[in-house]
Amino acid sequence: MSTRELSLGHAAPAHVETGVWSWITTVDHKRIGILYGVTALAFFLIGGIEALVIRLQLARPDGHVVDADTFNALFTMHGTTMVFLAVMPLNAAFFNYMIPLLIGARDVAFPRLNALSYWIFLFGGVFLNASFLVGAPPNGGWFGYANLTTRQFSPGLNIDFWVLSLQVLGASSVMAGVNFIVTILNMRAPGMTLMRMPLFVWMTLVVQFLIVLAFPPITVGLIFLMFDRFFGTHFYDVTAGGDLHLWQHLFWIFGHPEVYILILPAFGIVSEVLPTFARKPLFGAPVVIYSGVLIGFFGFGVWSHHMFAVGMGPIADATFSMGTMLIAIPTGVKIFNWLATLWGGAIRATTALHYAVGLIAAFTIGGLSGVMHASPPVDLQQTDTYFVVAHFHYVLIGGSLLGLFAGAYYWWPKITGRLLDERWGKLQFWVTFVAFNVTFFPQHYLGAIGMPRRIYTYPPGRWWDFWNLVSTVGAFGIGVGVLLFLVIAGRSLRSGTRAPADPWDGRTLEWRTSSPPPVHDFDTIPPVHGRDTFWREKHGDSRGHRPAPAPPAPEPHGIHLPPPSYWPVVIALGVIVAGIGALVSLAVVVMGAALTVIGAWAFALEHHGDPALADQTGVLGVDSRKVALWTFLGSECLFFGTLIASYMAYKGRSVVGPHPHEILNIPLTTISTFDLLMSSLLMVLALAAVQRGDTFQARLWIFGTAFFGLIFLGFQAWEFTSFVHEGLTLQTNLFGSTFFVLTGFHGAHVTLGVAWLLTLGVLHLRGRLPARDAVKVEVAGLYWHFVDIVWIAIFTLVYLVP
Amino acid sequence: MDARTRGGGPSRWLLGVTALLGGCAWNAPQTSLVPRSDFARAILHVYAIITWAALGIATVVVVALVVIFVRFRSREGAPLPRQVRGHTLLEMSWTIAPALVLLVIAVPTIQVIFRTQGQVSGALEVVVRGRQWWWEFAYPSLGVVTANEAHLPAGRAVSLRLEGPDVIHSFWVPQLGGKRDVVPGRVNRLTFTPDTPGEYLGQCAEFCGTSHANMAMRVFVDAPEAFERWIAAQRAPAVEAPGPAAAGKAIFARSACVGCHTIQGVSAGLVGPDLTHVGSRTTIAAGFLPNAKGPLTAWIRDAPALKPGAKMPPLGLSEADASAIADYLLSLK
Questions:
Q1: What is the pTM of this model?
Q2: Which CATH number fits domain B244-330: 3.40.50.300, 3.40.50.2000, 2.60.40.420, 1.10.3720.10?
Q3: Touching check for B23 and chain A: CB below 8 Å?
Q4: Cα separation of B308 and A67, whole Å?
Q5: pLDDT category of residue B118 using cuts at 50, 70 and 90
Q6: In CATH, which of 2.30.30.100, 2.30.29.150, 2.60.120.10, 2.60.40.420 is domain B30-70+89-235?
Q7: ipTM of the complex
Q8: Catalytic residue of the set A28, A160, A237, A258
Q9: How confident is the model at residue B21 (pLDDT cuts 50, 70, 90)?
Q10: Is A249 in the active site?
Q11: How many Å apart are CA B4 and CA A210, to the nearest integer?
Q12: Which residue of B has its CA nearest to A348?
């Protein structure tokens, strides 16, 4: 028995592990949340120090605090750190800690996967910052525009660190994204319908979809850049026909949704904090939900507003301008609904409420300057100037960071079991808020009078001196605000007043359990009577009717807490060793890859056969693993879609041969395509056989599918070899680069599928794949069918379309 | 207020407000708020409309917040407030109202996009090449090539043809209009009509590597006759002054200088700026050093020391040789 089973009625396990090892192997969402929070705070301080050095350099004209290359590295690392290592993981800290509590669950859907996300994030962040230690910090901007970032113009290790760590961090985010989508959709307490979910849960759900769908395009862009730098391909090589707009499109298709990935969680927090401290329900909650969903949805269609200056032509400019302006409507709706929530309330001006209201004010400014950039003519003056720097800091500090502070003050008692000092907290708010405005408001003006971004110095006589100095003073004020928070937090942890379970007269389920919650979150899964269910229990609904106490939800399996596991940290270690190897030597890459594969295998088989985990059907009526795979396949669609679209965009742009029609062997590929299609048929038979317990046929069809997959790989190996003999390699021309990368990644997916099927086959041979585990075969089958469908698309578009 | 500011009522007011904002001056040397071309004026017009709309909305939000905090503070012992869950009509109205405001912004936006991105017949074509980290300006129809300082005739449309031989840069002279990226492998266009003679500062606006900050340019908008005179002078052959300049010419001609720089009749290098009439320019090093004996000599001896990453390597020239070359270059008016 691999899960510790607690009998109902016991408040908590008698003994809670503490030491370092217990933290390394923890799979408890609350501990992982704390790990995310502490780690992200450390990176936030590093990014903040980078910002202060930047401001010191710019305080006066002709600054000499740092040299040009150091400055360029500092703003690159400041941006990359704040986006990927500070704000995203600070959001993740709240997702991890709060989401299960808010939906009345005992953990996330896949606790070990959650730990894996964290460890990969941690190692990826440390790897990125290790670049400072070897004197090669990334210096191409957080947006890494090709071709400046290709080997020709950035020969050092600097950009290598950036390319590798961003891919690693992306993998971590997508894993967490899948995990939280499944958790929110499938792990809700009975009665917690979608429209009863708290706003923070809703915004988290939107954000996870954005992460899962937005990261694949940038991953493809980074893969192209990595191949250009390491293997001599030509994706961003203008002389070979490459188009530099490609990188910008791939980056911003990710980059704009990323803005909402950063800010929607803060909107969710504000939507929890305002009703609590106004003692009134969120005004028009369904509209606030829909507007959040719309923001996320529109967010995918507006990326080119970051590219008005690149010369896309008036029609594209006009289209993306209109799309961008549309986003202002749901955003405005949110702001007015928040104001209406406060209107008529009984407002308790706590620190958390100060921050939430500060967000409304600051984000309004950031949103309005955003509408200015939505107008291409105006944007042509403002883009790449300090006006834009001011704008997005009003969004990311005024929006995200103030929201995160609101969340910190709001949930601190729940997480730590202690109260923060409210008087010091308000002082901390005012210091931070005033300093923030002093820092960034003048930057609008600096941009308007012509100060570009990313300049390490400026000459006197541009009239930029005074307001730069003011901005620097403000930046140090923000630094004081952040330090003050650390002091307040430290004092609270050491000697703060003990927090009751429900210090704010809260509305949502997390306040229904103790502060801090027990390991298993809730002794009994709480009843859900409607939106703000806990408030209704205490105060009754709008007519004052109190819901009848519901019987505790049935728990057929008792309370299961997954045991700790060290495999997540092993896999993460393998990934990062491979990353280091890419900079050092192939042997290290192989070691890292081996460690990853072994770790993944052990991870997959760790709880295999545990009867308590055989059925993971959730409130959707679908097994969580299937929901996860479907979500992952959504991400994969974007991944292959981007690869195929890039192939199509580059078709016919090669400046030298061989060209596709001279070399592609259509008859032979038709046979291998047929073989792969037939493997899908075998996969269907295999699943049916496993489900009905037919041992012979199950083995026959599982191994048959894998065998057909191997045949396909054999065809592909033969094809690649003959192409190389005919003079087409990755480095030959754009066709070679796009063809090998696209089909190569598909081949890698087939290889993974074969390994997966062989593993299942061996388990079956050993009698360890009974019918109750058929869902494992089903999930593998879904993946297999998807890979086959992708091949049909590739076969049609690459081979058949002339 | 400059009488020539024809940006219309809203932008005139905007300038006034900006000027009032605690010591802000709107006519800074590289400002985008004092337009000197049709393009820049059209932009400022849209900008002013949006700014006024934005100020209006911001005022509504701030006033609402203030009223809320004055009226709705919690009092001891007061009953729970009315538990209002929403109001469909209100919510619809604050969905529609922003949409109307956006429409007011969208119409002039679209108009200006199409008005400023069209082709203009009879425009003077100037090829702009952004390089790490300087600007080349070529006038193909006039047979003139120069660097970092362009001259344009007032009142005549110019069409910049933007070409990038190395990485992405962005051409930006705020008073003459918005920026446009210089993208290797593509040709971008920027068309406008400068309307007021003067000297306008600009600089690269897209991060392009180490010395991105040191990639400035000057655009001199000349009255038509002055522009003709400038063209005539630039087309004339380079004539050095007698004396030390002649010695400098000899040193220049036998040094590595000729591998990268063109001086008509002397050398034909294509890597660095054309120096045929370098003495007629006001600055060197892409606009950040005055074109005078001292800075020029130092620049010739060790450019990367003055401008990080500069592609001109120190050639190991003696102080005397560098000084002679400086004399020679300064004489090339």
A1: 0.95
A2: 2.60.40.420
A3: yes
A4: 8
A5: confident
A6: 2.60.40.420
A7: 0.93
A8: A258
A9: low
A10: no
A11: 49
A12: B74
